[in-house]
Amino acid sequence: DIQMTQSPSSLSASVGDRVTITCRASQSISSHLNWYQQKPGKAPKLLIYAASRMQGGVPSRFSGSGSGTDFTLTISSLQPEDFAIYFCQQSNSTWTFGQGTKVEVK
Amino acid sequence: QVQFVQSGAEVKKPGASVRVSCKASGYILTTYTYAIHWVRQAPGQSLEWMGGINTGNANTKYSQNFQDRVAITRDTSASTVYMDLSSLRFEDTAVYYCARAIDGYSYSGMDVWGQGTTVTVSS
């Protein structure tokens, strides 16, 4: 199975900060990488698919990049509603998720 | 607007089985384009893919972690997908989600999710 490792596992940030979360695959997954946001008690929400393509309705402050084994999710200017947990997911071979990154208020 | 509504919370004893349903609206369940997947999340943990079903031809694929205990089926007349998990263990306590993705297309994410169903395994 392909393992997905996210870093950091948590981070503290302020509104307006630029936030970067990384995700590394245990083997090459081309661009078969998706990013989700999850808020407490809610289902995950798809933000980015195919590494860099934005899902409809997602604010443009979110962006994704990378290919092969290393990927990044960037929030250009953190907003109050962005405090949540973010998961990466590979779709190259079945589906596996990273362990999540919790974005907390500084 | 595509929406999935899942069945209510369940409490089961170890060794029992559970069925969770996922009713689709705004979406034709017989389409071959999509698969409905089941993903679970234990308390405070990440997400774990269990398996999925192509809603058009009912082909299924399961995670090796659940191969012998999970069955995913669909009832097109009821616009509902079912997930049956047997031989329940304490560690199966989790929130179970259904979610949609384009079938067989590795550039697809899971774009529509159900609200989640809490399954608690307790003696």
Detailed description of the structure:
The complex is a heterodimer of chains A (106) and B (123). In chain A, 0% of the residues lie in helices and 50% in strands. Chain A contains no helices and 11 strands. In chain A, strand 4 (33-38) and strand 5 (45-49) form a beta hairpin. The mean pLDDT of chain A is 97. With 123 residues, chain B is mainly β. Chain B has no helices and 11 strands. In chain B, strands 2, 4, 5, 6, 9, 10 and 11 form a 7-stranded mixed beta sheet that branches. Chain B has a 4-stranded antiparallel beta sheet with strand order 1-3-8-7, with no helix packed on it. In chain B, strand 4 and strand 5 form a beta hairpin. In chain B, 38% of the residues are buried. The mean pLDDT of chain B is 95. Chains A and B meet through strand 5 and strand 10 of A and strand 9 of B.
The residue fraction in helices of chain B comes out at under 10%
Q: pLDDT below 50 for ≥5 consecutive residues: which ranges of chain A?
A: none
The assigned structural class of chain A equals: mainly beta
Q: What is the average of the pLDDT values of chain A?
A: 97
* Low-pLDDT windows of residues of chain B: none
Helix content of chain A: under 10%
What is the H-and-E element order of chain A?
A: EEEEEEEEEEE
Oligomer: heterodimer
User: Measured on Cα atoms, how large is the radius of gyration of chain A?
Assistant: 13 Å
What portion of residues of chain A belong to β-strands?
over 45%
Task: Throw out a few tags for this protein.
heterodimer; A: 106 residues; mainly beta; seven-stranded mixed beta sheet; four-stranded antiparallel beta sheet; 50% strand; globular; B: 123 residues; 11 strands; 0% helix
Topology:
The complex is a heterodimer of chains A (106) and B (123).
Chain A: E1 4-7, E2 10-13, E3 19-25, E4 33-38, E5 45-49, E6 53-54, E7 62-67, E8 70-75, E9 85-90, E10 96-97, E11 101-105
Parallel strand pairs in A: 2-11
Antiparallel strand pairs in A: 1-3, 3-8, 4-5, 4-9, 5-6, 7-8, 9-10, 9-11
Chain B: E1 3-6, E2 10-12, E3 18-25, E4 34-41, E5 48-54, E6 60-62, E7 70-75, E8 80-85, E9 94-102, E10 112-113, E11 117-121
Parallel strand pairs in B: 2-11
Antiparallel strand pairs in B: 1-3, 3-8, 4-5, 4-9, 5-6, 7-8, 9-10, 9-11
